[in-house]
Amino acid sequence: MLFALAVLPLMACVGFATDYGLAVNYEGEMQLSADVASVGAISIGSKGFEAALAQQSPGRVTAAEEQARLLFMHNFQRRGEDDFEITPVVERKADRVVSTINYRIKVPTLFGAFYGKADMEIHGRSIAEIEIAKAIDFYMLLDNTPSMGVGATQSDIDKMVANTDDKCAFACHQTNTTNNYYNLAKSLGVKMRIDVVRTATQRLTETAEKSRQKADQYRMAVYSFGARAETMGLTPIATLSSNMTQVRSQTASLDLMTIPYPNYFDDQLTAFDDTLKALKTVIPTPGSGYGGDEPDKYMFFVSDGVADHAKGIYCTKRTTPRSVRCQEPIDTKYCDQIKKKGIKIAVLYTTYLPLPTNGWYRDWIMPFQNQIAPQMQACASPGLFFEVSPSQGIEAAMKALFEKTIASAHLTH
């Protein structure tokens, strides 16, 4: 008799542990099914996500909720055996879609008679969200001034120096003679920095195509400092468009700025201040990029960071005697004016490589060489600065900058 009385509590404990373990297994299966449903109902390309995009105003997305229910039922294998319910709620908000799956199940106990429970109730939820495609306009400002005719790599520089009487590393594109260093570089197979920038920009259009959630999510425009020195200034290469094939094709025309003859305009052909001021007026005030609002705006600036323009007493560095010629790191106040307008600036600084065999470099650039990169970084918006030499991969750096700008669009769970 005493033994029987002692066994009953033991059976209750063992039975409860067994039933609890069974309930935990059910909970794991339901949580997994809920996770699959909450994520799958709003993943990019799903019917639910497409329905949310088509729904302009905030509110419940019934098509996504139905998809969530179907996904849950497909993955939960015990659906015919037990008392359970799921409640999917998918909501379109201003800038995101939120998917919530609440579930509840009553798991019958095997040993409930020993401890007075016919079933165990399990409940939980899974929440996933994804940001709606943010519309962004990218304005690419590509430095094509004569300094971008320098060899792309140290090997290219060495080849130019070895094949020019004056040890020049720059492939100056003169139009008054075909016997110029630009044509020499082409004949030697030397890749110029502008060549690498052009190719990287074209590749970026491919990245934009692969990254977008809808066809018109990203638009891109490409600008240079001018095709000819005689008409230098902000010059459109590719008009703002979501047609990346068109942008890619138009960007193929980007080339090194031509000069009519050596020392034209005292070589003052890299006018950062004027070009940035002009671009500021071109780029409209950005919007949120959501729900039909004006797209967000990013300016991509690719340059070696050294200005060479007529600035006189306003130059931040010394000028040549009796001259207004100013060579200096970028004057960031013009970047600041663009950023104050709400436009974000991504800067890809193509390292200004030292040219120790060039006398002008030694006298005028080398004294502020260590200030070029910090000034370019100060021009950029926080977190949107890359420094890279062409041999390290301008293309990869440009892609990384682009991915940083769109990193807000992601799925969380």
Order of helices and strands: HHEHEEHEEHHHEEHHEEEHEHHEHE
Biggest β-sheet strands, sense, barrel: 6 strands, mixed
Give the integer mean of the pLDDT values: 87
According to DSSP, the number of beta strands is: 13
**Helical coverage, percent range:** 25-40%
Strand order of the largest sheet: 7-6-5-8-11-12
From the alpha-carbon coordinates, what is the Rg to the nearest angstrom?
32 Å
Q: Under the CATH scheme, which class of the largest domain?
A: Alpha Beta
Strand content: 15-25%
Query: What is the assigned CATH homologous superfamily of the largest domain?
Result: von Willebrand factor, type A domain
Total number of helices:
13
> How many angstroms separate the termini?
56 Å
CATH topology of the largest domain: Rossmann fold
Q: How many domains would you count in the coordinates?
A: 2
What CATH architecture of the largest domain would you give? 3-Layer(aba) Sandwich
* Global geometry: elongated
Report the structural category: alpha/beta
